[in-house]
Amino acid sequence: MAAQAAVPAQADRSPTYWRQAYQVSDYLIESVSLRFELDPVCTRVSATLTVYRHPAAAQTGALPPLVLQGEALTLERVAINNVELAATDYTLTETSLTLPVPAAHFTVQTTVTLAPAQNTSLMGLYVSNHNFFTQCEAEGFRRITWFLDRPDIMARYQVRLEANQADYPVLLANGNLVATALLPNGRHAAEWQDPFPKPSYLFALVAGQLSCVESTIRTQSGAEKQLQIWVEARDLDKTEHAMQSLIRAIHWDEQRFGRELDLDRFMIVAVSDFNMGAMENKGLNIFNTKYVLANPAIATDVDFANIESVVGHEYFHNWSGNRVTCRDWFQLSLKEGLTVFRDQEFSMDMASDFGAQPLARAVRRIEDVRALRSTQFVEDAGPMAHPIRPDSYQEISNFYTATVYEKGAEVIRMLQTLLGPVGFRRGMDTYFARHDGQAVTCDDFVQALADANPESQVDFTQFKHWYSQAGTPRVTVEQHFDAATGTIRLDLTQRCPPVGIERQQMAGSTDKQPYLIPLKVAFFSTEGQPLETACFQAAAAEVIQHEHLLQFTQAKQSFEFKGVPAKHLAVIPSLGRDFSAPISLQYPYSQQALITLLAHDTDPFNRWEAGQQLFQQEILRLYTWAQEQDEAALSRHAAGVEVNAALLAVVAQLAQDQTLAPAFREISLTLPSFNVLTETLVVIDPARLHWARETLRAAIAGAVAAHWETLIQQTSPHLPPVVAYAPNAEQAGYRAWRNLCLQYWVLAESELVSSPARVLAEQQYWAATNMTDRLAALSVLTQESTASEILTDFAAQWQHEPLVMDKWFSLQAMAAPSATRSPVAILQAVEHLLQHSAYSPRNPNKIYALLLRYFANNPAGFHWQSVTGETPSYDFWVAQVSAIDAFNPQVAARLARTLEQWQRYVAPLAHAMQRALQQLQQQPALSKDVREVVEKALQ
Ligand code: B3K
Ligand code: ZN
């Protein structure tokens, strides 16, 4: 039969898919046999699917036709039960193949060709650096063969790969290698069999010139397992940390959750062209090189920590995602929220020696919350706000969001808080035992936890509002203290009006249900003494203790605490300890109360939080002042405004508090990010907010000016060359603290002609033996001036290490405006860098390092207009997003989201952003990925 061209799809370009519309598939697939004749220009894929009628689908009447999904495939042949079909026997469109069904059980044979080297979307089968890779989640498998490409179709896979042996010596797929063969004409073959049924999104193959490092480990039950990390030969010296992380992850999952590795062989493959971080394909994880390759010379402490976390994350998916998967893509948080929770716990245990160092655990927790607030809270305040289990989407790729992942993890964490670690573990065991091998829903997960904890006081029905409602609940707290009776009353109010895509779906109704909020609270005397109180909460036994876990379940609710000794005239509440719920808490703290909590709170998270609130109050005060000034008045030493002296005194004390771990001091002296600061703003004026934040930063630098050098010196005995370099949490903490001190010190001396701080930074740059210190020095030296010689040196030294060059691009993309660097100059620098020989315009890491960092992480550098009212940075945005959309819609959609908050900005910028979005919307042939983002932003 001749190849047949596909019929164009219907005019309806972007249908909306609804969670409530879920229906079981008419047919299931028992087994899949695939043969790949790999060739970069034209790969042939022959598939045999064993198909049968879904037992739950209606049994009466005629068998409905089988509708398979496909994309960008050229069909060569189709047969049913090995009998070839004529073109008139089936219907082919661009995205569907409809086949007649002869019986309740039958086979389908198809042969297609595809063009991997032309595949720039990096979904399906593609070529990167002459090697073949796949990415199938969420809907990439349909770009490989015609299939029922949905996660509730779980089949057994047998895969035969054939390729030229010299060009593609390594041939990998999921599961176990069952046969290899030499073929004529220099070709060879490998056959792989995956013993576990899996959804198509977990399919993977890799073929090419790769080398591997191996380890053998023994699991809990005594079974021997082979671990492999496959990379390009030049990167073999950068795999040790990933391997050790994998081994730690395997043992941790056994100990913490009783989950054992189920395959004899577990492989990780690194690829430099990849749309996201990594992918948990069964037994064959494919990773962005960024999350595998590390050694001290090229990777920072943050890179080392990220690698440990992502290696853990993908490995943990083997149970939470692969053995038990999602029924449909609306349930994505079932696997992602749960797996992020698991990787967070893993990282906390690794950093703190399994909890032996609680402050180290707290530092990781703070980092996670900081990330949640600066990404997910912002998402919740914009047009894309959605529940962790969305109700609708146009393009599922747009819903791999901070909400589904990070807020999803907080929802799991609240369940653990409510059930306690033992009850939670019992629930997890029930979940895995009950649903192993199934594709299930978030409701099934919560039900398993509920069934395993019949005695718990948790109303799971109410708890599930966290799954169905979007937005960050705003909790307002009023405290009433009766000194005469020693009684405290907290009056709590929760509010969460419709947000984002809820607003259209709820059609003006404000009918959202109150959440079940686990709220950890404690009280302190005004001197900072921890108080013990008795809490009167319905259904809970009254216990006298310092910390209480409240179940805050009504729109308005009061809690009473008794037993404050008579001598106290006032008490200070510590609320939402350890960030016990993903909410925004409002309590009218005085500066003195926050200073007390910062010094004395027994919860390290809330100690840090008190400091952040102090900074936030001060920055907002400066911002409000700045809003009344014209921009020219906003110099470094603007007349008419002083930074609060009491705050500066506290910061100076904190900086020198030797009882605090350096990692904690570092995190406590880092100001809230721009995004976090916007949370409470009615109108965002980027230049003024940047000015306010920088003014406080400079004041802190000045207030501690006499001590930075000593503080830096104090770290020396704990760092190389005195001790051997190790990227562990403790040493990383010393380095982070030292480098923050250096940053403040250079800032404190920025007006000196010859500055000892700069001299030290330069020395550190040249003498550094690790990338953390080298990059920190470079960043410090470029914070105010361009330091072009050192930047040039760095590029010359690292031009052949793409991951290091990403850091170099990012540093320049995020360079904030300063006295010597105008926003125009920043835009020109970014434009210029697009032409740099180390920039590769189609590589997602490069696009993210340069463009995403500029659009998303340089607010004052990106959002501005010229004196004549033009906004060239937004014109640049339109041009870049539409150019990238033409070859990689997923990456373009990620960039497009950087203007979605436009309505929250000051008027001239907001209008210009709106115009930019409209211009993008009018581009011909916009992908549905970008279209969804732009339409939601403009609605
Ligand atoms: N599950 C993948 C993400 C796939 C994204 C597809 N657009 C990685 C992860 O979360 O582990
Ligand atoms: Zn994941």
Automatic annotation (TrEMBL):
Gene3D superfamilies: 2.60.40.1840, 3.30.2010.30, Neutral Protease Domain 2 (1.10.390.10), Peptidase M1, alanyl aminopeptidase, C-terminal domain (1.25.50.10), tricorn interacting facor f3 domain (2.60.40.1730). It is an enzyme of class 3 (hydrolase). Its cofactor is Zn(2+). Residues 471-587 form the Peptidase M1 alanyl aminopeptidase Ig-like fold domain. The keyword Protease applies. Belongs to the peptidase M1 family. This is Aminopeptidase N. It comes from Parvibium lacunae. The lineage of its organism: Bacteria, Pseudomonadati, Pseudomonadota, Betaproteobacteria, Burkholderiales.
